[in-house]
Amino acid sequence: MTHILITAAGSHGDIAPYTGVGARLRAAGHEVALATHDSYAPLVRAAGLEFRRLPADPRTRRADPADATGPADATEQARPPAPGGTRALMRQAAAFIKELGGGIADAARDDTDLLLLSATTAPLGHHLAEARGIPSLELPLVPAAPTGDFAPVVSGGRSLGRWGNRAAGRLSLRVIDRLYADAAREMRARLGLPAATPRTVRRRAEAAGRPVLYGFSEVLVPRPSDWRTGLDVVGNWWPWHAPDDRLPPVVEDFLAAGPPPVFIGFGSMAGGEGERLSALAAAALRRAKVRGILQSGWAGLTTRHTSADDDLLTIGEVPHALLFPRMSAVVHHCGAGTAAAGVRAGVPTVPVPVTADQPFWAAHLAALGVATAPIPFKHLSTDHAVARLAHAIAQATAVPARRDHATAAAHRLATEDGAGEVLKAAERLLA
């Protein structure tokens, strides 16, 4: 029996897709462990996978007053960085990565036959694979290789022209190399490997044509025309949930009491802004004359800070696969997984991107015709925020063409089997 280790670090959206991948591998007869943070142990074990601990849990770090804006992953914070805060953000990210390195080395046992690596863990996992002499496969959730087709996903989504896009893409890789430099040096020393910079290791992998499978759909982002052979877009990996899972009775009762509501949630974004955002969301929903479900998330959205209203409900974590198809529209931060879940459900989106790759996905949803024009999160702090959000919600729920586009995109997405493609690639490497 083969033993596969998946490593993933960051926020919920950085972890949950790999539970679906792991469950698919396990169903094919492989022993699968998922190494991640303590916060996600229940998620991992519920999928029938072995949990192994990684340090630097972003929820714990975020709760630390000395590090109130600790990164949700190597490139993302729980809230937008303050102006001039880029240097501090880089220091925080490097510290996060350095702490992560030792945990990844500890997570791989002697019987590991294959490493599957998320974007955050891959630059460290490759050293481990080299030391152990075992194959590895990168499984990023966002397009990271330089291309002329679009600018790096963390650059805000604005094209710089084909030459500029490629140059910016190469620069972004060098920034990542710098972030991982200290952790890589320590890890290679610990593993008894000769010194080599992250850039050197990355270029070796590129020269060898090492395969990379990207877990997003070409429905949203077609495979770039100038990518090398071996960089493949295979479709989304959906978070695992039990076949008999149902929405909580309180949610079912709310759905049965009126027309389909609008979902509003910001995932792991906007920490500590729950009171302001809850009041804003409630006011916008009332102005748009629609019912709403607020998902608490890291922001702490709640109806507690709004006036009593039978048309509002606050919920915790529930599978988007069960909830989103029951909505008339979804308002969210446009993380990769949440953006794809809205398309999969066939419902229109109101994108409110906060940071990192979120403006990129927001722009692609709008270009596909399944979303309204994005509302940058910072615009929710202006005097006209309620009116602007209400107008976007009305546009999402009342324009038939947008729902038609969403339905068509959902049908295309349903033909893809991203986890199945990972299984095929894994078994080729194991063979």
Radius of gyration: 21 Å
Unreliable residue stretches: 62-85
CATH-defined superfamily of the largest domain: Glycogen Phosphorylase B
Q: How many structural units, i.e. domains?
A: 2
CATH architecture of the largest domain: 3-Layer(aba) Sandwich
Kindly report the CATH topology of the largest domain.
Rossmann fold
Number of DSSP strand runs: 14
CATH class identity of the largest domain? Alpha Beta
The number of helical elements comes to 15
**SSE succession:** EHEHEHEEHEHEHHEEHEHEEHEHEHHHH
Major sheet size, sense and barrel closure: 5 strands, parallel
- Class per helix and strand makeup: alpha/beta
Strand content: 5-15%
Percent range for helical residues? 40-55%
**Net shape:** globular
Strand order of the largest sheet: 3-2-1-6-7
- Determine the N-to-C terminus distance: 12 Å
Mean pLDDT: 89
Supply database-style keywords.
Rossmann fold, 2 domains, 15 helices, 431 residues, alpha/beta, five-stranded parallel beta sheet
What does this structure look like?
The strands form four sheets. The chain has a five-stranded parallel β-sheet, sandwiched between helices. A five-stranded parallel β-sheet has the order 12-11-10-13-14, with helices on both faces. The protein has a two-stranded antiparallel ribbon with strand order 4-5. 44% of the residues lie in helices and 12% in strands. It has two domains: 3-236 and 416-430, 3-Layer(aba) Sandwich (Rossmann fold); 249-413, Rossmann fold. It is α/β, with parallel strands linked by helices and 431 residues long. Strand 1, helix 1 (12-27) and strand 2 form a beta-alpha-beta unit. The chain is globular, with a radius of gyration of 21 Å. The model is unreliable at 62-85 (pLDDT under 50).
